[in-house]
Amino acid sequence: MVALLVGLSFVMGPIQLLKLYGIPYVGFVMWLDLVTYLHHHGHEDKLPWYRGKEWSYLRGGLTTLDRDYGWINNIHHDIGTHIIHHLFPQIPHYHLIEATEAVKPVLGKYYREPKKSAPLPFHLIGDLIRSMARDHYVSDAGDVVYYQTDSQPGR
Fold it and tell me: Taking every annotated instance into account, which residue ranges of this chain make up the domain Fatty acid desaturase (predicted)?
């Protein structure tokens, strides 16, 4: 891929390659990071992180979040169905919605229903801002830890 990109930079010029490949690539990586972050942060209730003897595959999977990304769910293979993806990663993307619906009654209170989205998921901006304002670090001690807020950020 590097050889192809170097070759294309000679053929079309580095600025054109940056516009056609570099900027969309950075945008995609930022989107992917945002989606991943929101599947693990930003819920109204503080979600635990488990370590050592307290961690299990099930506990880890249940501390993720489903999100509703509006019409983006459809073009990203139902990316909002994150809990079922963690619990049963072998389920193909085209069965994630029905699998999520089937497992909700079994999970009961352990399933956190996502906020419903408009066609574009602008509601997630508030979740992101809230999480970035309060979820700064976890303690180095303990097997069940929660994100804490740094009282003096940037020091």
Answer: 6-112
The answer to whether 117 and 128 are in contact (CB under 8 A) is no
- N-terminal to C-terminal alpha carbon distance within the chain: 41
Q: Are 39 and 33 in contact (CB under 8 A)?
A: no
Q: Which residues pair with 137 in a beta bridge?
A: 148
Q: Are 117 and 27 in contact (CB under 8 A)?
A: no
What pLDDT is attached to residue 65? 93
Question: How is residue 103 written in tokens?
Answer: 């497992």
Give CA 76 to chain center in angstroms: 12
CB 111 within 8 A of CB 103: yes
Radius of gyration of the chain (CA): 19
Residue 155, pLDDT score? 67
- Whole-number Å distance between alpha carbons of 147 and 136: 6
**DSSP string covering 74-94, please?**
HHTTSTT-HHHHHH-TTS-GG
| pLDDT tens by residue, 90-141 | 999 999 999 999 999 999 999 998 988 889 999 899 999 999 999 989 999 9
Phi, psi of 132 (to 5 degrees): -70, -25
